[in-house]
Design goal:
The longest helix is centred in the C-terminal third of the chain and has 30 residues. By secondary structure, the chain is of the alpha+beta class. It has 2 helices and 16 strands. Helices cover 26% and strands 41% of the residues. The termini are far apart. The protein has 2 domains: 98 residues, Roll (SH3 type barrels), CATH 2.30.30; 65 residues. Strands 1, 4, 5, 6, 7, 8 and 9 form a 7-stranded antiparallel β-sheet that branches. A 3-stranded antiparallel β-sheet has the order 13-10-16, with no helix packed on it. The protein has a two-stranded antiparallel ribbon with strand order 2-3.
Length: 211
């Protein structure tokens, strides 16, 4: 009887220790807040994955963490948080959320700026609606969806009043870092002049052969 009691006691201690280890291995969550005007929640940490739903400014979210450190999922040059809201899981861009107890200090990875005064737009039902927000020339931007000069509008995020906001501005007002519009214009002019010269020389050479 004593042996059974001792064995049961040891087994109970083992299961308690094992259970404690499993509980410790589980991920915790940290309360964050959406610091953008709105933020899409993706099915996976990938901007090309399905959008599950959209969060609004200052909405509280639970971010997956391991102790005091939140977990970051990196895909290409973008970082994501795995979040939970109302029992629903998903991923959002890390730039669009800030810890509730901290004041936002900066936005990482500025990769563009405005080349002149411009107005910020919101996208509503596939239409671009002008907002009351305007940006001065040289305002730092983060192009989170890339940049294509042929698109009429470019998605941007920026810091204003110690918060990260996002919207759209006209692509003509965007100057990506490392690209100087004046240099591009000069290069195009030089290529055009060289093309005309080569065409002229080619035609002149043809005429000499024919004569």
């Amino acid at each position: 009887m004593k042996k059974i009691f001792v064995f049961s006691f040891i087994f109970l201690c083992f299961m308690t220790t094992l259970g404690g280890g499993i509980a410790h291995a589980e991920s915790d969550t940290t309360i964050y807040m959406v610091c953008a005007n709105s933020a899409n929640v993706y099915q996976s940490p990938d901007l090309t994955s399905d959008i599950l739903y959209t969060l609004t400014h200052k909405e509280k979210i639970e971010v997956e963490s391991d102790g005091e450190e939140v977990k970051i999922y990196t895909n290409l040059d973008y970082s994501f948080y795995k979040i939970t809201t109302d029992g629903k899981e998903g991923y959002i861009l890390a730039d669009f959320a800030v810890r509730m107890v901290e004041a936002l200090q900066e936005i990482p990875n500025f990769n563009a700026k405005t080349n002149g005064p411009c107005v910020v737009y919101n996208k509503v039902d596939e239409e671009y609606v002008e907002t009351s927000i305007s940006l001065d020339k040289g305002y730092k931007l983060f192009l989170y969806e890339g940049y294509k000069s042929k698109n009429p509008y470019t998605a941007v995020s920026f810091v204003m009043d110690n918060q990260v906001l996002y919207g759209y501005i006209e692509s003509d007002s965007v100057a990506p870092n490392g690209i100087n519009p004046a240099i591009i214009t000069c290069a195009c002019l030089i290529l055009a002049i060289l093309g005309i010269m080569f065409t002229f020389l080619f035609i002149k050479g043809r005429k000499k052969k024919m004569s």
